[in-house]
Amino acid sequence: MLLFSPSTCGFYDRRVHSSVPADAIEVSEAERTAALDALEPGLAIVAGPDGKPMVAPVAPEPEIALALVRARRDQLLRDSDYTQLPDVDMDAELRARWAEYRQTLRDLPLSITDGAPADWPVPPVA
């Protein structure tokens, strides 16, 4: 008999495992295979609303998430560096909006708390 535990998100077989969590429920081999086949980087097997196994995105560790935000932020800053060069043909109001956008990007990592997704600013349009 194949079992799945919502609390551990693990599969168990009583023929192999001497200790099985109390919340383990019976699942079919097809359900187990479907969950395992759907796994790829960034996904994990979790308990669905019915307690059965399903695959869902996994949030990265906070340090990794922040590093990803900083990497994207740094690329967006590099992509907009030209907007602050004095010889770029741009009126003062648009240049100021670009400067504000860039400052918002610089401040972005400080605004992220408790794993909340980043609120990315939208670049100005001429």
Lay out the secondary structure.
Blueprint: E1 2-5, E2 10-13, E3 25-26, H1 29-38, E4 43-47, E5 53-57, H2 62-79, H3 92-111
Antiparallel strand pairs: 1-2, 1-3, 4-5
Helix pairs in contact: 2-3
Tell me what the structure shows.
It is built from three helices and five strands. The protein has two domains: 2-57, no CATH class; 62-111. A hairpin with a 4-residue loop joins strand 1 (2-5) and strand 2. The radius of gyration is 24 Å and the shape is rod-shaped. It has a three-stranded antiparallel beta sheet with strand order 2-1-3, with no helix packed on it. The protein has a two-stranded antiparallel sheet with strand order 4-5. The protein has helices at residues 29-38, 62-79, 92-111; strands spanning 2-5, 10-13, 25-26, 43-47, 53-57. The model has no long low-confidence stretch (mean pLDDT 93). Helix 2 runs antiparallel to helix 3. It is an alpha+beta fold. Helix content is 38%, strand content 16%.
Features:
126 residues, alpha+beta, three-stranded antiparallel β-sheet, two-stranded antiparallel ribbon, 3 helices
How far is it from the N-terminal to the C-terminal residue, by CA?
A: 65 Å
| Main pleated sheet | 3 strands, antiparallel
- How many individual helices? 3
Summing up helix and strand content along with how strands pair, one would put the structural category as: alpha+beta
The share of residues in helices is 25-40%
The H-and-E topology, N to C, reads as: EEEHEEHH
| Sequence stretches where pLDDT stays below 50 over 5 or more residues | none
Proportion of residues in extended strands? 15-25%
Cα gyration radius (Å): 24 Å
The domain tally reads: 2
- What form results from the Cα inertia axes? rod-shaped
Strand line-up of the largest beta sheet: 2-1-3
On the 0 to 100 scale, the average pLDDT is 93
Number of strands: 5
